[in-house]
Amino acid sequence: MFQTCRLWNLSIASVLALTLSNVFLTVRLLHSGDCNQYGGAEEGVSMVPRAPILTPATCLEYVLAESLANSTDKAVFSGLDLRLGRWDTRRLYKIFDFAVVGERFPELSGSYSVCLATQSSLEKIYSLVQVSHHWSGPISTAIFAAGNDELYLLQLYLSYLRLCFRPIRERVSFHLVLPRDRTPTHLKSVHVSDFTKFDCAKPEATLNDLLKLRKPDTSKWRIKNPYPQNHLRNVARKGCQSSHVFLTDVDIVPSVSFAEQLDKFLRRQKPHHLTAFVVPTYELDERVRFPRNKTDLIRLANKGLARPFHHKVFIYNQFATNFSRWQSDVSESDETKVSHNVTNFEFLYEPFYVAPDTVPPHDERFLGYGYTRNTQVYEMFVAGYQFQVLTPLFTVHWGLQNKKSRPAWRERQNNVNRKYFEVFKREVFARYHKDPLRMLLPKKAQKQHGQGAPGAGAGVAGGGPNPGGVGAAEKHQ
């Protein structure tokens, strides 16, 4: 009798404790709303460079509550049949469109006229945390995984991101791209306990710890084989359901309230279908806070804490944007407008731009480093697109970059792509019957006219030298 009474009393205590715990977690959930609390307005104003601020205890409470209320109690790609998917045109990569769909992605695609399309390998996907907090519209992300071990790590990390960060869970749809010779036949089992153990306050450190588990042969394969960035860009673009696409790389972070301001501009402007809106991109010193607005960015630039993207690495990458003119266009209004037209287009120009997805696709013959983005922008120019620079919108890449020695494998990839370009430029001429940069002239004639493809030893449009043919086309963009 005494034993039964003890059990009954313990049961009552357990029920009371569980009830109080649930009430507490519910209150915390209602007040927090997300596992990472950036300072500032409407979950968008990042007042820290990279990582959110959150105590592990608060994050744990949130994870427990959210896992009961959402579909985050199972790993991403659960139920994905790797025998299916689709092939690229040369059957080099298998593609799984919408392998993960953001919970609000269809709704946001209907309410916003612009979608952010981006691509990444496993190493850089942590940048999506800050990107998704600054971009309130739909995000279409293509991600590459090489081999079963990398795919498993990707499952863990994406599951962790969706669990910890509401903007990623709601706004981001993921598309998966796998190499043909390293596509596994089945997915490794991932349990909830495998990804709920990570600290939500440390997305970058969590990823770095996971990358240590990658097998040496996978790392070697990644170095030896080119990264299919143009495949990924095309997949991400086609994943967008809005009328316009803002195509970036995953470590390019939009300014605060970017999507809302851009959406208002596009609806008000109703631009011509052959218009591409360029967004100025700056490098930012990692010691400073993310600029709140254009005025704040210019202040940092005047102090040498911000500068145009790749300004020291290869100036022609963004030179035609005319940053000095953009910085001189200062207005008290935060309304998005066209600052000026790009008037000195050059072959090596690689702006991040907003346009309908009717622009020419990225040519998938260009793999790895060299000729990946600039060839697509070049075809747009030949096709008659006008590039217009927007203000006060901007994007940021963390870190002031300087020239580094390039490994031999990068130059090998660049040399392969240089040969493809000789065919590509003739195809572009056949398609449009125009050669505005005189790319088909003999190399000596190109040099006289200040033109030339990278590696040709010629100048570039605008009269500047081409230093050794090593340019923006060579980076992992």
TrEMBL record:
Listed under GO biological process in this entry are: protein O-linked glycosylation via mannose
Q: Where is this region: Disordered?
A: 443-477
Principal location listed in the UniProt entry: Golgi
Transferase as a keyword of this entry, yes or no, is yes
Membrane-topology descriptor: Single-pass type II membrane protein
Q: Its catalytic activity? A: 3-O-[beta-D-Xyl-(1->4)-Rib-ol-P-Rib-ol-P-3-beta-D-GalNAc-(1->3)-beta-D-GlcNAc-(1->4)-(O-6-P-alpha-D-Man)]-Thr-[protein] + UDP-alpha-D-glucuronate = 3-O-[beta-D-GlcA-(1->3)-beta-D-Xyl-(1->4)-Rib-ol-P-Rib-ol-P-3-beta-D-GalNAc-(1->3)-beta-D-GlcNAc-(1->4)-(O-6-P-alpha-D-Man)]-Thr-[protein] + UDP + H(+)
Key words, A-Z: Glycoprotein, Glycosyltransferase, Golgi apparatus, Manganese, Membrane, Metal-binding, Signal-anchor, Transferase, Transmembrane, Transmembrane helix
Q: What pathway or pathways are given for this protein in its record? A: Protein modification; protein glycosylation
Q: Which InterPro entries has this protein been placed in?
A: B4GAT1
Q: Which family is it part of?
A: Belongs to the glycosyltransferase 49 family.
Q: What is this protein called?
A: Beta-1,4-glucuronyltransferase 1
Species of provenance = Anopheles atroparvus
